[in-house]
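Checklist before submission:
- one chain only
- standard amino acids only
- sequence pasted in full

Submission:
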Amino acid sequence: QSAADYQQRIWLTNDNNTAYMGGLMLGTPLQGNFSTSSFYFDTSSTYTTVTTVGCEDCNTTYFNSTKSSTF
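Returned file contents:
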């Protein structure tokens, strides 16, 4: 899968009119699982926060910057 496969569309789920959730893939090459990941999108911010390698308090690791040429 590549970023072009998604053509900048992210299908969002409305969570009780308080937040929007959807899948996300990051980096080059892409990391993550678009169909099973679930992120809350903060529509009032320009920042996105994800768990990374080295996070001691995280149950899952989503992104490894050493495997990406763009982050």
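Reviewer check: DSSP finds no helices and three strands in the chain.
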